[in-house]
């Protein structure tokens, strides 16, 4: 995304040239998250962002007497005729920089639908396996500020809650390895300028501009959005602010969990019992998060979809003061029931056809909820 009219004053960010090459003087700060790791696998597609990541990380490492060992890997998804040749070109570039490189081939059947998501999932698995085999403790990815902005828009369009709108994290974990994204605050234009200044070539994946996919469509809208002030910088600032608020709400939920959870004789490992009056006195957002945690922990279907959690929470709030009929609902493989002063969340019994027909028995009906990925 190009940047529009925002200024350092209205975003709180330090104003940097948006398309100036990255200078050596900034490398220590940029790669500070690398320092705790003895060995890092750099994920390089051969596109501009990850080529710049490899180039700059090698430059940073060469300027230090000690630090992380760098290794690099390229996943050949086998989806384009040129992919094998491009992966080899990345390998040759890495070797020139003195960085060992591996090509990881995505084998097996490729789905007809959702190919981008399947390729991403396969890529993370292959990179994590290669990283672990090589003794790496972290994978470095070249997501930029433009990617962060796109992620925020993408999730906004899909109805995400605050956790989703906080965007990608600069430090996350997956498959037992840390995921480092040192360029999350760096405009893509600066990486391209860095490569051009160093005379380095990179490939452009045509699928990045394929308007059959949602992200390229959002990318194509970026100049118009930036013209209205909704540029990458503002969206990235928004993501940071939301992440900050989200962390505070999670911390408040930790406190509420300790205060409201009943650890009495009735408590079993597969049950989460909450003091119902204390739960009802929590602010809605905290109560909702606590309920979502309970369902996620004892349920069998992964993270709960936010809209479904909200529907269940509203039904619970409506039922709580009445207590005329027992409250029992299932969501994401968990059973939520209100008995007297106790709100129980336990693993749901196996579903029967009749469960789906009984009134007040299932808010999620026959829909199978997803098992992975952030749901909010
Ligand atoms: N085929 C691949 N092999 C290794 N790493 C990859 C591959 N594709 C993506 N990555 C890693 O994941 C990051 C994000 O992927 P995404 O598809 O958003 O970027 P991209 O368009 O490939 O970016 P780049 O300009 O680096 O090529 C990349 O910057 C890179 O670090």
What would your notes on this structure say?
- Belongs to the tRNA(Ile)-lysidine synthase family.
- Its EC number is 6.3.4.19.
- The protein is α/β, with parallel strands linked by helices and 376 residues long.
- It has two domains: 236 residues, HUPs (Rossmann fold), CATH 3.40.50; 97 residues, 2-Layer Sandwich (Uridine Diphospho-n-acetylenolpyruvylglucosamine Reductase, domain 3), CATH 3.30.465.
- Helix content is 44%, strand content 14%.
- It contains 14 helices and ten strands.
- The strands form two sheets. It has a six-stranded mixed sheet, sandwiched between helices. A four-stranded antiparallel sheet has the order 7-10-9-8.
- A hairpin with a 2-residue loop joins strand 5 and strand 6.
- Helix 3 packs across helix 8, helix 6 packs across helix 10 and helix 10 crosses helix 12.
- The protein is elongated, with a radius of gyration of 24 Å.
- Bound molecules: adenosine-5'-triphosphate.
- The site of adenosine-5'-triphosphate has 16 residues, from helix 3 and strand 2.
Q: What's the story with the biggest beta sheet? A: 6 strands, mixed
Question: What is the domain tally?
Answer: 2
List SSEs in N-to-C order.
HHEHEHEHEHHEEHHHEHHHEEEH
The average pLDDT value, as a whole number, equals 87
Rounded to an integer in angstroms, the radius of gyration calculated over CA atoms is: 24 Å
Percent in helix: 40-55%
Distance between the termini: 24 Å
Catalytic activity: cytidine(34) in tRNA(Ile2) + L-lysine + ATP = lysidine(34) in tRNA(Ile2) + AMP + diphosphate + H(+)
Subcellular location: Cytoplasm
Binding site for ATP: 45-50
Family: Belongs to the tRNA(Ile)-lysidine synthase family.
């Amino acid at each position: 995304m190009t940047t529009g009219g925002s200024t350092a004053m209205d975003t709180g960010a330090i104003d940097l040239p948006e398309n100036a090459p990255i200078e050596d003087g900034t490398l220590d700060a940029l790669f500070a998250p690398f320092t705790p790791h003895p060995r890092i696998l750099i994920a390089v597609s051969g596109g501009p962002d990850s080529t710049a990541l490899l180039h700059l990380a090698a430059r940073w490492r060469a300027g230090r007497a000690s630090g992380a060992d760098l290794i690099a890997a390229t996943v050949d998804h086998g989806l384009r005729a040129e992919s094998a040749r491009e992966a080899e070109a990345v390998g040759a570039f890495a070797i020139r920089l003195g960085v060992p490189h591996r090509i990881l081939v995505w084998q097996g059947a490729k789905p007809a639908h959702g190919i981008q998501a399947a390729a991403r999932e396969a890529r993370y698995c292959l990179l994590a396996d290669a990283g672990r085999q090589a003794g790496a403790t972290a994978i470095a990815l070249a997501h930029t500020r433009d990617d962060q902005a796109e992620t925020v828009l993408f999730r906004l369009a899909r109805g995400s809650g605050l956790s989703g709108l906080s965007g990608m994290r600069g430090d996350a974990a997956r498959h037992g390895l840390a995921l480092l994204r040192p360029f999350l605050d760096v405009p893509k234009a600066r990486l391209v300028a860095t490569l051009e200044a160093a005379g380095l070539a990179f490939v452009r994946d045509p699928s990045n501009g394929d308007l059959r996919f949602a992200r390229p469509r959002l990318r194509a809208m970026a100049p118009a959005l930036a013209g209205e002030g909704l540029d990458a910088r503002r969206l990235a600032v928004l993501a940071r602010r939301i992440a900050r608020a989200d962390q505070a709400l999670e911390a408040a939920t930790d406190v509420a969990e300790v205060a409201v959870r009943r650890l009495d004789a009735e408590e079993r490992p597969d049950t989460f019992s909450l003091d119902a009056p204390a739960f009802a006195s929590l602010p809605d957002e905290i109560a909702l998060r606590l309920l979502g945690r309970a369902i996620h922990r004892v349920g069998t279907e992964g993270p709960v979809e936010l809209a479904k959690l909200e529907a269940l929470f509203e039904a619970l709030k409506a039922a709580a003061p009445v207590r005329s009929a027992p409250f029992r609902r299932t969501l994401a493989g968990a059973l939520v029931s209100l008995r007297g002063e106790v709100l129980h969340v336990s693993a749901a019994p196996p579903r029967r056809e009749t469960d789906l027909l009984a009134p007040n028995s299932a808010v999620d009906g026959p829909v199978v909820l997803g098992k992975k990925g952030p749901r909010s």
